[in-house]
Amino acid sequence: MPNIFWDTSALARRYIHEEPGSARVTAACEASAATLFVSSLLSVEIASTLALKVRTGEMSVHERESNWELFGLDLRRQYQILPLSEPMFERAQKLLFRHTLRAYDALHLAAALALRAAAPALDLEFWTADRQQAQAADQEGLRVQLIG
Q1: What is the rounded average pLDDT of the residues 100-112?
Q2: What is the DSSP letter of 7?
Q3: CB proximity list for 122: less than 8 A, separation 6 or greater
Q4: Strand 79-82 and strand 124-128: pairing?
Q5: How far, in Å, are 2, 18, 94, 136 from residue 146 at the CA level?
Q6: pLDDT, tens digit, for every residue of 92-103?
Q7: Which of 53, 57, 78, 128 is deepest in the core (most CB within 10 A)?
């Protein structure tokens, strides 16, 4: 199994089981051979996603708390967190001029590209549920898995 860099749009499906592709995401996370990479933005975006689900009535506060606790455990024991750096911000800015991306999507993509540049032999896939981000990642030379 390849190593995976997760965008929030895909990894959130591990904690929101009603989303399309949830079973596939969960299975990929449980594959013991894969290293799971995330950017340091992930926890803020997961919190935002879970809070939105509560505000829209799609999830109870109890479910949000349970999912947030599970996410915290996974974050500490399973995910390799890539801190954002000034070169990643600069690359994200360039990505925003080349592709139709939201700011955080560009930062996740810049982090994945930095990881690939730092470890070119790493068998890496970029997983996202965002079609525009998937297209940009593909055009930037990453192997992409589109979820959902």
Answers
A1: 98
A2: P
A3: 3, 115, 116
A4: unpaired
A5: 15, 17, 23, 12
A6: 999 999 999 999
A7: 128
- In 3D, which of 59, 72, 53, 71 has the Cα closest to residue 15? 71
What is the separation, in whole angstroms, between the first and last Cα of the chain? 20
Token pair in block for residue 103: 């700011």
- Find the mean pLDDT for residues 54-72: 97
Instruction: Provide the residue ranges of all domains of the chain, joining segments of one domain with +.
Output: 3-146
The total number of residues shown for the chain amounts to: 148
Q: CA torsion 13→91→89→92, rounded to 10°?
A: -40
Could you give the maximum distance between any two Cα atoms of the chain, in Å?
44
- Check residue 121 and report its DSSP letter: T
Superfamily name with CATH number, domain 3-146: 5'-nuclease (3.40.50.1010)
The Cα 11–Cα 5 span in angstroms is 10
> Which regions of 2-142 does DSSP assign to beta strands (E)?
3-6, 36-39, 79-82, 124-128
